[in-house]
Amino acid sequence: MKPTTLNIKTNSDNYKIIIGSNIIKNLSKYLNKYSIKFDKCLLVIDKKVPNKMVSHISKSLWEKEIFKFYFNSNEKNKNLNSINKILNILLNKNFSRLDCVITVGGGITGDVGGFAASLYKRGLGFINIPTTLLSQVDSSIGGKTGVNTKEGKNLIGSFYQPKLVISDTIFLKSLPKRELICGYGEIFKHSLILNKKFYLYLNKNSKQIFSLTSPFIEKAIYESCKIKKKVVEKDEKEKGIRKILNFGHTFAHAFEATLGYSKKLNHGEAVILGIITALKFSLDIKLIDTREYKKIVENIQKIDIPSDIKFYFSYKNLNTILKFMMKDKKNISKKINLILLKKIGLTVINREFNKSKIKKFLKKELSD
Fold first, then answer.
1. Residue 165, pLDDT score
2. Which of 37, 149, 220, 342 has its CA 20 to 30 A from that of 326?
3. Beta-ladder partners of 71
4. pLDDT per residue over 65-84, tens digit each?
5. Are strands 336-343 and 346-353 parallel, antiparallel or unpaired?
6. Looking at the 3D structure of the chain, how many domains does it have?
7. Is 158 in the same domain as 276?
8. Could you give the C-alpha distances from 17 to 3, 164, 367, in angstroms and in order?
9. Any residues with CB less than 8 A from the CB of 80 and at least 6 apart, and which?
């Protein structure tokens, strides 16, 4: 399948997303095509990326002076300590603002490398090569970068757009099914919030997508990115409509933080669990009707992961979950701001609820 290109236009920058199979070997060609120039680059690499793929990238950059920082990519290492390590390399090797950071890995790697790039000398070039399905359809678009703290997820960060994104599906062949499920959850979320036609396509072709069959996997990535592109271009800094992309995330981030970002529940799984919880809450307040709710949940249950929060949590976790929900960055008052669903393709933003209302709902979910 011929590579496809999406052009992302925001107020701060314009950049291309290239989607295709085995295109990483042509990195230098894309750099020349889009006039992206630099002499030195720092590759921030997830240790899980196969060495063969890193070698392809290095060979494609043979004219450049290359430095490498291998990153043990997990939520616990998504912190300021990792940022400092990257900044120290950039400082010690005397990178200029015309040089470049290239991230090679999943969303955590992109967030950390992109945030460091935004800080160094107030910003140097940043190229993102997302290697997981989740990062190819989510964190590679929109310019959100940042790190976690003990107070919560992504509470320190910046909006910083890349110069180029290369989404090569060849990376996906090295992923375990659990990682593919995580990415599919985000794709599914995009269809729910804005595009019923795409939702129906996913229901019909999910098996081909999970088996990475072409052109189904490329189309799923492209259509998912197109939905996020549409939102981000309207609202780069998450002042309005971009909040719909957080559907399920208020619950999801609180779930992750409550478990201390453990491997028991990774980000993509937390998002799927958060979507189900947000759907249940939408039903609880009679925002979505029972028929629509059941139709969506039945489709989510085809994904082979636990879909009940009682699998991960008990009543004793209730107050901790609420504590992290209260710290969510969408909150602008003492209430909890939720993104909810009225029906497939119609999302409701800026609905605020008292802590007691959420507590009553979660108490019921954890005790049923």
1. 97
2. 342
3. 46
4. 999 999 999 989 999 999 99
5. antiparallel
6. 2
7. no
8. 10, 6, 45
9. 147, 149, 156
CA distances from 308 to 249, 273, 336, 359, 367 (A): 16, 7, 22, 17, 11
- Sign of the dihedral defined by the CA atoms of residues 148, 153, 158, 162, in that order: positive
Question: What does 247-290 look like in DSSP terms, one character per residue?
Answer: TTHHHHHHHHHHTTS-TTS-HHHHHHHHHHHHHHHHHHTTSS-H
CATH number at residue 247: 1.20.1090.10
| Burial label, 94 (beta-carbon count in 10 A; 0-12, 13-18, 19+) | exposed
Find the domain containing 127 and state its range: 4-174
Sequence-ordered list of residues with C-beta below 8 angstroms from that of 78, at least 6 positions apart, any chain: 108, 111, 112, 147, 148, 261
Which of 118, 140, 174 is a domain's end point? 174
Residue 126's Cβ-count burial label (10 Å; 0-12, 13-18, 19+) is buried
C-alpha to C-alpha distances, 311 to 212, 306, 307, nearest whole angstrom: 29, 7, 8
pLDDT tens for residues 243-282? 899 999 999 999 999 999 888 998 889 999 999 999 999 9
Q: Reduced to 3 states, what is the DSSP secondary structure of residue 21?
A: coil
Whether the pLDDT of residue 329 is over 90: the answer is no
Neighbours of 29 (CB within 10 A): 11
- Examine the domain organization and report whether 246 and 271 are in the same domain: yes
For residues 124 and 228, state if they share a domain: no
Residue 181 lies in a domain: no
pLDDT score at 120: 97
- Asked if residue 118 has pLDDT above 90, the reply is yes
Record the tokens describing residue 104, joined without a space: 């090679």
pLDDT of 368 reads 65
For residue 252, which phi and psi values (nearest 5 degrees)?
-60, -50
pTM, two decimals, is 0.89
Q: Is residue 80 part of a domain?
A: yes
Residue 239 pLDDT exceeds 90: no
**Is residue 217 in a domain?**
yes
Q: Are 22 and 42 in contact (CB under 8 A)?
A: no
Strand, helix or coil at 240?
coil
259 and 165, same domain (yes or no): no
Q: What distance lies between CA 185 and its chain's CA centroid?
A: 10
